[in-house]
Design goal:
Elements (H helix, E strand, L loop, with lengths): L20 E3 L12 E3 L9 E6 L6 H8 L13 E3 L5 E3 L12 E3 L11 H9 L3 H4 L1 E6 L9 H17 L9 E2 L4 E2 L1 E3 L17 H17 L21 H6 L1 E5 L5 E5 L5 H13 L5 E7 L2 E6 L4 E4 L9 E3 L1 H6 L6
């Protein structure tokens, strides 16, 4: 018999333990630019992780000094963790403890001026401030073209699994979180115009995903091959005049000049038509989210993670639904 969603996470289960973290929490300036923003305690609000490389080869202690109050990046950067070539994990900012950095949102993950792939829906759902406040930043000591060591890969997997389990990511949803309609793993390039070199992670992302999923599954179910939870009940829209308009809500678009424009449901518009057809087919009725333009490409996000896509700025007719396979083919997310 398949498990239900309610018993997919047993109440008596043990949480995934954090791997050993070398305590290197850094001091930062108390006034002026300090490489971070003050925020509400981050621990209860973490939803995922964001990966980076250092573009250098110092020890984790060296990077603690580098980001510390007297270091080269003491006033313009801060990262939560650094994973050394030897697999040791340096804890430079403890997001879990308000007294040891949990109210500091370091600038490591970047801004929202280069959104692509899953970064589009992340910002649409949680806002730009969540990029640094709600994702644990992970630097891996490596240069472009340099393979991560086996020890680094193992440490990265262990850290991801503990962070995501503590954040409430369920094994049968990984690598997404369905209640928020977002992915839970990101790279710097998904948010910023200048991302960390992606070649370091090419080819190992499937390994990371496979191992993280296996550990989450084992800890959350006590099994290596559990039944998938039964799908949630299908919501039924009201059968009253105007119900498509109420369920669709309003699509918000950021125009090139920075102004915001609202697009309500349009029974003849290609976006509304595509939404209604898929809703009727799948029995799901998500509300419209944000309309983003990334280069010449257009993305429409919906509250449950659906993404509608058009490839060119002058092609508003040929909208199509995209999933991870399609986004990989478009070069918008890593394979």
């Amino acid at each position: 018999m398949s498990q239900t969603v309610a018993d997919a996470r047993p109440r008596t289960r043990q949480p995934v333990p954090f791997p050993p973290l070398v305590d290197l929490v850094v001091a930062k300036p108390t006034s002026g630019d300090a490489g971070f923003d003050r925020c509400e305690p981050r621990g209860p609000r973490i939803v995922g992780v964001c990966d980076h490389i250092t573009a250098g080869e110092m020890s984790i202690e060296g990077y603690a000094a580098f980001f510390g109050i007297d270091g080269e990046r003491g006033r313009d950067a801060l990262v939560d963790t650094v994973i050394g070539r030897d697999g040791r994990i340096g804890l430079l900012n403890d997001w879990r403890d308000p007294k040891r950095g949990g109210t500091r949102a370091g600038w490591a993950n970047g801004g929202s001026n280069g959104l692509e792939g899953p970064g589009v829906e992340f910002v649409a759902r949680l806002g730009a401030t969540a990029i640094n406040q709600r994702l644990v930043s992970k630097e891996h000591v490596a240069r472009s073209g340099q393979r991560l060591t086996d020890a680094q890969i193992a440490a990265s997997i262990a850290l991801d699994t503990a962070v995501l389990d503590a954040a409430g990511v369920r094994w049968h949803e990984y690598p997404r979180r369905n209640d928020l309609g977002i992915a839970v793993r990101y790279g710097h390039k998904h948010f910023a115009t200048k991302g960390c070199p992606e070649d370091v992670f090419m080819g190992i992302v499937p390994v990371l995903d496979r191992e993280v999923l296996a550990i989450l599954t084992r800890y959350q179910t006590g099994s290596t091959n559990p039944d998938r939870p039964a799908p949630a009940p299908v919501p039924v829209p009201p059968k009253s005049p105007g119900w498509p308009e109420r369920l669709f809500g309003a699509l918000m678009r950021t125009m090139p000049d920075g102004t915001r424009r609202m697009y309500p449901y349009d029974p003849k518009g290609p976006i509304s038509v595509a939404w209604l057809a898929r809703c009727r087919k799948e029995g799901l009725w998500p509300t419209a989210g944000e309309w983003y333009t990334v280069g010449t490409k257009h993305f429409i996000s919906f509250s449950n993670g659906w993404v509608l896509y058009s490839p060119r700025i002058d092609d508003y007719v040929n909208w199509r639904w995209v999933d991870r396979v399609d986004l990989v083919a478009e070069g918008l997310v890593a394979a």
